Structure formats: C-alpha cells, structure tokens
Amino acid sequence: MSGVVALQGGGPFEANDELDRRLLCERGIERVVMLPTADAYEQPAVLVDAALAWGARIGVLVEPLMVLTRDQADDAAAAVIAAAPAVVLAGDSASHLRSVLKDTPVFDAIAAVLAGGGTVIAAGPSAAALCDPMTDQRGGAFALGLGLVPGVAVIPGSEHWPHDQLERAHALANTPVVDLPTGSALVIDDERWSTVGEAVIHGELPA
Fold first, then answer.
1. Which of 170, 154, 136, 135 is nearest to 5 (CA)?
2. Hey, which of 2, 53, 64, 145 would disulfide with 48, CB 3.0 to 4.6 Å?
3. pTM of the model
4. What is the pLDDT of residues 136-158, one digit of tens each?
5. pLDDT of 26-56, one tens digit each?
6. Domains of the chain
7. How far apart are CA 201 and CA 186, in angstroms?
C-alpha cells in the first residue's frame, strides 16, 4: 500500500470537507471517480447529486461511475477507475458493496490505484466494507470484508450504535477496532496510520 486510504465515519459529501481538501486538493488531485455502489437499493442518484455539489464546493471534478450490480463491475468500469488518481465510495450497505466488488476487475482496479500511489476515500458503511473483517451495522457482528485494509475493523457512525452493541463488537473482535463517529476518520498514508476527529482505537493498529 503506497497511496492513501481514508475511512470516514459518515456524512459523505457533507461532514468531511476539510479532510477531503487535504486529501485531494492539497495533493494536486483534480478529478475523482465516485461509486455509489453501496446505495444501489436506496437513492444512488441522490448520492451522486450530493457528490457533484461537493466536488464543485471543494474544487474537484467528480466522475460518477454507476456500478450498482456485479455485472457492472466489469473491465470497462475498471478502465475508468484505472485512469483516475482517486476513487470515492459511499452508500449505506456494506454487504452490498462487498458482494458487488469482491473478486472483480473493479476491485482490482481500486487496489491498483492505491498501489500506484493514488487515493481511496470511503465513507460510512462503505468504509467498513473495505476492511477485513467488516462490521455489520445491522447487529455488530463481523464478516468477511474486501480486505483493501486488512487486519483492522472500523465502526462507522459509531455514535448511533447502542452502547451494549458497541461493547459486544469490541469484545468479539480478534483485530483492532476503530470507532468512527461522523466527522472522524482513520487515514493510512503510505502505511502510516493517523486519526482525524473523535475516532477511538481499541487495540493496537498494525505496524
């Protein structure tokens, strides 16, 4: 991993402008590919509109890529990602994002962007899906994730979790767990870990 991954607690395109400017604008990144995959069964077009407004606000060109089903995670979509310096993932279903992208050309392209020094930003449940293990926001259990960030789990939107559910997740985990309330983030920059906002780390992050 030679690029930058930012796992944000929530509020995609609303709550993280300062961090997004640091990750993108201050690094000279002028264009991002945005995947609303995890909102496929909700309102992906609304999420895309929010992303376009966010891009205009912070000064980044947003190219939506409507990969909503596994069939769409194909070589053509992967080629769009491969040509981009940054990828942004958002939406509320970690399990759908995992099922659509796992072992596909699109996921391979995202991993290649990161390996090539690019930037990957994921917000909310989409951030959980990029890890392995992946937290399931429906009950606090753990499942197989995409593994772009292995050996750690994150709990996005942790301020909305009941205390006993959070404690159960912490107790069940066999890896470090990071609570990520909205507006916070876990950032991995060339294998260096840092937190933004009120993130809380349980355990020791990988070296």
1. 154
2. 64
3. 0.96
4. 877 668 999 999 999 999 999 99
5. 999 999 999 999 999 999 999 999 999 999 9
6. 4-202 (3.40.50.880)
7. 9
